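Form 7-S
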Amino acid sequence: MGEDNEPILGRAFAATGSYSRLVGVFGHRRDLRLWQAELGGATWPESDQPKRPPIQQVAADLRRLRRQLERLPKGASYVRVAGVQRAYDEVLVIACAELEVDTTLSETPAGQQRDLERLRVEFMLGECGLFL
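Output:
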């Protein structure tokens, strides 16, 4: 039964052009899953890789956040400094994933060890051609 239904799902997917458009047609993922179940569980391939922004965008975000860190006023609140630093670290981790650089930045607690890991990561990204 599933084999007969796969072309129907394939045609629906081809007609809409993407999973998100197909979800839009049904209004909700739950409705789409119910429709799939009625068709005998026919599915379409989903990407194994998580969606990531292009490396050019990641580099631009890193440079922007680094400038923000450098230009924070001397009396800036701890919350503001910590928020920008955390955003910078998160984008560093994304850059490492895209350029296949090993890092423990997200697991390292705040403090001197994290600062050292951040410096190491910035150096390694520079070695890969991503200059901050």
